[in-house]
Task: structure prediction
Amino acid sequence: MVRRLRSFFLENIARWLVFGLLVGIVSGLGASAFYYLLQAGRHLCFHLLAGYAMPEAAGDHLFEWAGAALDFRAWIFFLLPAAGGLLCGWIVYRFAPETEGHGTDLMIDAFHNGKGRIPARVTLVKGLASLAILSTGGSAGRQGPIAQIGAGIGSAIGRLLNLSDRERRILLLAGCGGGLSAIFRAPLGGALTAIEILYKEDMETEALVPTVVSSITAYIVFTHFFGNAPIFFFPGYVFTDPRELVFYILLGLLCVPAGLFFIRIFHAVRERIFAPLKVPRYLKPALGGLVVGGIGLVYPQVYGDGWGWIQLAILGKLGIGLMIGIALAKIVATSFTISSGGSGGVFGPTLFIGGMIGGTVGFAAHHFFPQIVVQPEAFVVVGMASFFAGVASAPIGTMLMCSEMTQGYGLIAPLMLVSIIAILFTRKRSIYRKQVESKRDSPAHTADFTVNLFAETRVKDFYKPEKVTPVRKTTSYGQLKKIFSASHIECFPVYDENDTLIGAVNWDQARTIVFEEGLEDLIIAQDMMSPVQTVTPQDNFYDAFMKFLETNAEELLVVSPDDSNLVLGVLRHDDLIAAYSAELNRRKNSG
Result:
């Protein structure tokens, strides 16, 4: 038996390793293609058309920028987000309307409610629409598109392999993790974010092994083409002075109202501005792009994900006033880009906003307390993790992703602190509308919890022991009527001359002849009894439920597990259903 279990376990693990490897290869190639086309598109739109050299993160340098030699064209720079929005709107509403917005919600919904199915056209359309927005300066990021693209790849592989709904959901997460780990060069953070982003207070740990394998594989594929340098150059700041924790706590507390403000603005723009707007849906992303273009003429930092400006903040090259201004402008620009129907992610913009809040706190603290806050640039990285952890309810994956993207492992302590502070105060709200509280609230796990409830709930938990009148097999029907009328119980045990339980008499069986005259002395209990069906206090809900189905009775006899002839009471069908409902509600509402 042990050998069989070990063989099954090893075969199952090997199977998921193979699946994770396959999904990782394909999602890594998909992320590589998306990243290259994105960088090429940005180079074309800003360098060649607008004549604007957009700063880049150190690890994102793929194409050469001419810098001062460029001839800046303000009107093209202004119109780029609107043009990208128009192209995105046409692609989305012509081919796959469900791909509008940031994409992560669609992936989450496909897991919870869609049985892990994402149509292939959705994956393709999402990629093209996101390229249109991101290449032209729409204030959005890569996470949403690549999460949906990777998840679509995992879903497609699950369909090709004819896997079950449960297995397809797992591959969907493996693909999502592979895409995230590749494009952000964060294999561990990408994997944990994929299994964490589904819930506000839970994790999909069942998908951990294939998701980690997929993430590592996709990371290797991606870095083969683009190198393994982290996205941001980080000078190696470390946390050494415990007194700095006061300012990190202040940063975490500031990220709470800022995160709630961002969530409110983000959803309000969609619901109060664009939803009631009476124009064709494909024009709405273009109108959002016009707003972004207008903001960009004052604050060009709001274009794209803004990671080049994060890099400058990490290097201490941005002033406090500028960081405050562009953080507020980024909130508005991101809301108008994505809530208008533009295709892009919120991860990049939230890192930008959090980084600017962190930089503001760090440099302000350094100004007043230079002996305590010696490295204010470190607050930029901590702010990035804190803000996204709060608005997305994903502290662990975000903390690890920020550490991997900067190699800033010396900041783990403040990263953990501010992320927990942010999520404690914003846990009931999230930028992702499709997130659920925990596995108990996910339709994907309804069957799991039902099976667990059936298996774990015992008869002793919901039946009431009581005295049951025994009946001899020779007891007459006349005597039985007196027993029936004197008791609220409807099921009575029948014993033979050796005190052996041989059957049961139910009031339901006697009801058909209750008005017949002259039968009181002609019929005895043995004539009316049915084969005995009993349960013990240790039997589970499932066993009792199946016996009710088999007998179609309203009551079953409960007997001692040590003596099958000793009746302890009766189990009523109504009590069983009531107990099931109460236990289900208790588990759903338990902490």
